[in-house]
Design goal:
By secondary structure, the protein is an alpha+beta fold. The protein has 11 helices and 12 strands. A hairpin with an 8-residue loop joins strand 4 and strand 5. The relative contact order is 0.07. This is WYL domain-containing protein.
């Protein structure tokens, strides 16, 4: 038997032992077969019956043969706390490891290192024989915008920032803003970590002020944990902060957007509206009149520029004029390079 086949068999038997109840009337072979199928093991009822007979010669298992179908269970006071993980557990752990590295402190992830390794080894051993083990190769999450490579974040700095946030301590930081020629020193009150696409942000206030600001993690040049307790405003709630449009680079202003839309953008907006109050009303030709309450800011401007061939802003007038200037400037730049 190949090593991969042996690993798959051992894993299946381990799962089978975990499925057995601690008391009669026990679990039937047909029931156990269905449960193994749910966990990604394509076995027959006959194979499960042979497995149970073999395992009963090694482990304290009992077969309730007083009636049919027979039920299998652990003998009294002998059920084992088996340290294995199920296929679903392994898949979940792999997803956790991939997606939470930046937003979960490494000190909190450290106890899971052995479980991550166990999950990785289990999926690798089962990938040829258990269809579910290949699930992560069949699903993906992609960003709707331009695919950008994630910036490099120093692991030591990340750990210091996460530790300060976890312990509610202030942070002495040296930060390079894109608008300055040299790094600047800050004393920060960490409030939250936010992952936005490929970029991670620390939300923090600068002493002695209390307004939450965005700091891109890869622009930190140094970060040192302080003994002083961080000042966390009582009214700061992360979900409220996100709902304000702050991570869309808005200053919190809500505007009533009016525009004329056409083409495929109409279908897109019907399927994925801009807001809960968005409306699309037919007007001349194949165009539609759009109205929606949205957060004003850079993200909105970028989206409107992207959709400029299918969308024409009508109001607010200030937004319309701003977009016209940007489109004219872009046209001039294109014309000057020909």
């Amino acid at each position: 038997m190949s090593s991969a086949k042996s690993a798959q068999t051992i894993s299946r038997l381990w799962e089978l032992l975990q499925l057995l109840p601690a008391r009669p009337p026990g679990a039937e072979a047909r029931q156990l077969t269905a449960q193994l199928h749910d966990r990604g093991y394509a076995v027959t009822k006959r194979t499960v019956e042979r497995d149970l007979q073999m395992l009963s010669g090694i482990f304290p298992l009992q077969c309730n043969d007083k009636g049919t179908p027979y039920g299998w269970y652990w003998m009294q006071n002998t059920a084992l706390d088996l340290p294995g993980i199920s296929l679903m557990d392994a898949l979940s752990l792999q997803l956790v490891e991939q997606s939470l590295r930046f937003v979960v402190p490494s000190s909190m992830l450290q106890p899971l290192t052995s479980r991550f390794m166990q999950a990785h080894n289990k999926l690798r051993a089962l990938q040829e024989d258990a269809p579910g083990a290949a699930w992560l190769d069949k699903v993906a999450v992609v960003e709707p915008g331009m695919a950008l490579l994630p910036p490099a974040v120093d692991a030591v700095l990340l750990e210091s920032i996460q530790d300060a946030l976890l312990r509610d301590k202030q942070l002495d930081a040296l930060y390079m803003s894109p608008h300055h020629n040299a790094p600047k020193s800050y004393r920060l009150n960490p409030l939250a970590l936010v992952q936005r696409g490929a970029v991670s942000y620390l939300i923090a206030s600068c002493v002695p002020y209390h307004d939450p600001l965005r700091f891109v993690l890869h622009r930190f040049k140094s970060a040192t944990l302080c003994d002083e307790e961080a000042i966390r405003p009582a009214d700061f709630k992360l979900q409220d902060y996100l709902a304000s449009g702050a991570m869309q680079f808005s200053e919190g202003e809500q505007i009533k957007l009016e525009a004329q839309v056409r083409g495929d953008l109409v279908t897109l907006l019907q399927e994925t509206p801009l807001s809960h109050d968005m409306t699309l009303q037919p007007c001349q030709g194949e165009s539609y009149r759009l109205t929606a309450t949205v957060s004003s800011g850079i993200q909105l401007d970028l989206w409107l520029m992207m959709q400029s061939s299918s969308l024409t802003v009508i109001a607010p007038a200030s937004l319309r004029e701003r977009l016209i200037k940007r489109l004219n400037k872009a046209m001039q730049q294109y014309q000057s390079t020909v």
